[in-house]
Amino acid sequence: MTETKFDTTCIGNAIVDVISKVEDSFLETEGLVKNSMNLIDEDRAEDLYGKMGSAVEISGGSAGNTAAGVASLGGRSNYIGKVKNDQLGDIFTHDIRAMGVNFETQKSDQGAATARSFILVTPDAHRTMNTYLGACVELGPDDINPDDIAASAVTYMEGYLWDPEGGKAAFRKAAQIAHEADQRVSLTLSDSFCVDRYREEFKSFIIDGVDILFANEDEIKSLFQTDDLQVAIDAIRPHVEIACVTRSAEGSLILQADESIEIAADRSIEVVDTTGAGDLYASGFLYGFTNGFSLAESGAIASLAAAEVISHVGARPATNLKELVQSRLK
Amino acid sequence: MTETKFDTTCIGNAIVDVISKVEDSFLETEGLVKNSMNLIDEDRAEDLYGKMGSAVEISGGSAGNTAAGVASLGGRSNYIGKVKNDQLGDIFTHDIRAMGVNFETQKSDQGAATARSFILVTPDAHRTMNTYLGACVELGPDDINPDDIAASAVTYMEGYLWDPEGGKAAFRKAAQIAHEADQRVSLTLSDSFCVDRYREEFKSFIIDGVDILFANEDEIKSLFQTDDLQVAIDAIRPHVEIACVTRSAEGSLILQADESIEIAADRSIEVVDTTGAGDLYASGFLYGFTNGFSLAESGAIASLAAAEVISHVGARPATNLKELVQSRLK
Prior knowledge:
Helix content of chain A: 25-40%
CATH superfamily of chain A: Ribokinase
Number of strands of chain A: 14
Oligomer: homodimer
Number of domains of chain A: 1
CATH architecture of chain A: 3-Layer(aba) Sandwich
């Protein structure tokens, strides 16, 4: 294992979120399943945007949010993702760098615009996402800097990255480099529909070489096509070093070898917008794990980071997480 | 007076706000006066943005916020302002139309990008604005649709519009059309520094034909170069039909002929971001005034709309103001 330059390198779809409040009836009319992520094309993006109310634009992208969280916690954070050289690409680039994240991926000059996710937040604070991948389809293996991956304690990738052409190849290249350098590979399953799309490929990829897996209850059940969480847990244990299974308000489980650690969710906060909860959970755990904290401590940091992000609109921390952790976790 | 199509037509600089939290020390380092609006060029915009933390983008622009407020209250609202045919221009256009505002101003195809205001919100919830006018300099008399102005009960203009080339000419044309159609002309002084830039021109314009004037305490004092609010009030009375003088947490004064009506501010809310307080006050008053409410009632609606907008980040209503007014006022 070489000396590390980064605690984490996060790889994902670089997206600007377009967030709007809607009533539940809007989801019904548009045929959308609450809490899901739907891939949409440019025509549908235009159609949906035209029907949405006024919105707020905030940089997002699942792994981008995780990278922002690691940096906010004081970790050394690197991000790989593709934007176009346009106004939204400038906004994405500014925001992630302003959080303290290293972001050097070459912008695309041609082709589709920077990706947008139209996020509909219902009165119950749940979010339903509609993502136009745009420039994300331009990401490929050439965007993976081998030196940076080899010098990252953990290379973390979002399952969503399997959607665009080229993402999968970038993904596999990064995983190979990380393992050759004796570093860890981490994956989030992202979304149960995403698992539906790539179940067998995800399984092979996990068995071949994921060290730290993040999944929520629905995703891990979907992976093993079971309704029984315990069955899914028993199935994943042998294949990864660590699995973190998040269960919304029920907290989370951290699994390692035969051990199961239960982490409580912070129920004291008022939930405003659940966007980014899983992303920030991952940032807290990865920050803790790569900075010498125990699994239980890392889980507590994860819980705190997730609670912060669901207490406001937007999927990135609005507070300095390092100070929050210091004030809350002794 | 012809039959009206719009309660209000609002004319102003069409701007997307880029909002970021900063410490007071940031203002000091950058030599910025808290609560002011500073005009910046493209180089300074880039410099400042590079120093700012991650931000949120929300459509803004003083008169745009007022137009959004009138629509949210259920009023018939029209807006005139110039954006470029770019991503931020699309966002501005979407958002104001999604609020129910009629917005038909031709986008510019060449020249500077859509305007941005870098808004720095300090821990005390006060905002300091740094505006790059961009495409706003392209607005001119040709953008004023005479039929729409003649069919608006009130044509409302922001003082800021005197900054870009062409804005002033558009302003004068609109005022003339409104008066020829026996409709009312309204002006907000916008900012005490703006008053400093155009004091004598503003005075002439007001005397020549402003019917409803909006100003905060600093602005009206600056107009008459006095430290004494009463002196300023006595000076403005003879020249306008109505003057609304806002005084932050002290509430506001509505002056008509010899009458002075005191309107209380809503002090029950937690102030998060004062951006848009004056804009939404104006929307509430103009909605009330053009819909048959008394001055006191219009002032109460104005107060409620202002309180709503300072209770969250962003300068446009996040709540349906019509429902808010119905639930709170009787």
